[in-house]
Specification:
The protein is of the alpha+beta class and about 500 residues long. The chain has 3 domains: about 160 residues, no CATH class; about 140 residues, no CATH class; about 140 residues, Dna Ligase, domain 1. About 15% of the residues lie in helices and about 35% in strands.
Length: about 500
């Protein structure tokens, strides 16, 4: 009984493996230009070097498409070493009109011409081509080669076994070919078009802009090279210059995850390449705009009306209308509080001479005295020696820096536009040693029982709220600093 069950189990496994292989043959095109169905006994319908194709014409129910191979040379014909750049070849669309092509899709069509093997030889001298759908073919494809020869393929019906009937012009035989060959010959124009709106390298981000109906614009830029006489604010290389009055840093490690889709948006559907009325798509008065730039490419698109799970869009430099999936533009709803540097105020300690902390019935002055010791040797750098004080009393460096770190580590908890009223409960005044504005004042006005309204340099129109308990750490560290003593 056990032997019988083992034989049955082996037979079932064999059937499954054969079935899986058959599915792979029908659905997966080869990467090396060879036909997966070809064996020593298979019949080549068409086989030659794909590089010899210079022109392809495809006619099917979707229209007539003509592609030509062109030599392309970059605008700058010299590389970094001054040598001539190699000329590259690229497929261009001659008919129905020039457009940005998916080079890989056009190359797939070329592969069908250059590496086409029969799955089955059906009939050598057919008397009635209509039974195969070849009396009036579903598609006619022609490849023109460098030597002037032409290869013409005629596509028939789809078969019950998941293949297509096909003939080559000049050959009386009828074959079946694997599904992906027939699918290529039935492509619509959109199947050959490049569906990538733009490819932006987020690690090389230079600029981002979001405009959305009903909200303030968002704009992110790279910080200009730090001027030597300006203090160092923030931690990163990007500044959020809108919507807030004072630029804030951005945590790009988090933002890049949110905007990954934006960097490689793909067109869901080509709607209209020559619209006579953009208002049909809500693009005469766009509701949103999005710009993303790296050092080489720019994505600049407008958004119109939504339809089902899609939205109409157009590029800023073109009237062609496309659809994008709504799920792909979730980045337009990004909440800035999750990505911006949330420090109430942060400045490098080397750019500060002293900080005065007022509030809770006390006033503290944290100050630093710096002296430069000249280097003994020419190849050595001068040494800056800093002494740290609290209210004029010298304190240990480590505990002083802990207290300063607590000052600049106060975070905002929410964006909220409000008018600060009354008197500030706590004030930090920073005295800087460089920059045009040497005094920076950070104040915390009462907002409610849980929050302060953050005010910078006396501007009572506050944009942020800070939790009251966030200031506890500042006072704890200063009190510890006050108790500390220098080691003997």
């Amino acid at each position: 009984m056990r032997k019988k069950r083992s034989v049955i189990a082996l037979a079932v496994c064999l059937v499954l493996l054969v079935g899986a292989y058959a599915v792979l043959r029908l659905t997966n095109p080869p990467d090396d230009g060879t036909d997966p169905g070809k064996t020593n006994e298979s019949i080549d319908i068409s086989r030659f070097d794909r590089a010899n194709i210079i022109r392809m014409t495809l006619v099917n129910e979707n229209g007539e498409f003509v592609f030509e191979k062109k030599e392309i040379k970059d605008d700058e014909d010299k590389d970094e070493e001054g040598k001539d750049k190699e000329t590259r070849t690229e497929w261009v669309c001659i008919k129905p009109y020039d457009t940005d092509l998916s080079q890989s899709s056009v190359e797939d069509l070329a592969r069908t011409f250059s590496a086409l093997a029969a799955d089955v030889l059906v009939e050598e001298e057919p008397e009635d081509l209509s039974i195969y759908g070849l009396a009036d073919p579903a598609a006619r494809a022609e490849a023109l080669l460098k030597d002037g020869k032409k290869v013409v393929l005629l596509l028939g019906n789809y078969t019950a076994s998941g293949t297509y009937y096909l003939m080559k012009e000049g050959d009386s035989r009828v074959f079946t070919v694997l599904k992906y060959h027939g699918d290529r010959l039935k492509y619509a124009f959109s199947d050959f078009r490049n569906k990538t709106l733009a490819s932006i390298e987020l690690s090389d981000l230079q600029y981002m802009y979001i405009s959305k109906e009903g909200q303030k614009d968002i704009e992110i830029i790279t910080k200009d090279e730090q001027e030597e006489d300006e203090p160092a604010y923030g931690l990163g290389i990007y500044s959020l210059v809108k919507p807030f009055k004072i630029p804030r840093g951005i945590d790009m490690s988090k933002l890049s995850n949110e905007f990954a889709k934006a960097a490689s948006l793909r067109i869901q559907e080509f709607v209209d390449d020559d619209p006579d009325d953009l208002s049909k798509y809500g693009l005469d008065k766009p509701k949103m705009r999005f710009i993303l730039k790296d050092s080489a490419n720019t994505l600049d698109i407008y958004f119109g009306d939504t339809v089902d799970d899609s939205i109409y869009v157009k590029k800023a430099d073109s009237d062609s209308v496309y659809k994008l999936a709504l799920s792909d533009i979730s980045f337009m709803d990004a909440k800035l509080i999750d990505y911006m540097e949330r420090f109430a105020f942060i400045v490098n300690i080397d750019n500060v001479d002293k900080v005065v902390v007022e509030g809770r019935g006390k006033t503290y002055t944290l100050s630093m005295k710096r002296e430069t010791k000249k280097a003994n040797d020419e190849d050595e750098k001068d040494e800056v020696v800093t002494t740290y004080f609290l209210d004029g009393v010298e304190k240990p460096e480590e505990m002083f820096k802990d207290a300063y770190q607590a000052l600049i580590a106060v975070l905002v908890d929410a964006t909220r536009e409000s008018r600060a009223e009354g008197e500030p409960e706590i004030r930090f005044t920073y005295y800087l040693n460089k920059g045009a504005e040497r005094v920076q004042v950070v104040e915390f006005y009462p907002y409610d029982k849980d929050f302060y309204a953050l005010v910078r340099n006396g501007d009572l129109d506050s944009e942020f709220l800070v939790g009251r308990n966030r200031l506890d750490s500042v006072y704890t560290h200063i009190e510890n600093l006050e108790k500390s003593k220098l080691e003997d």
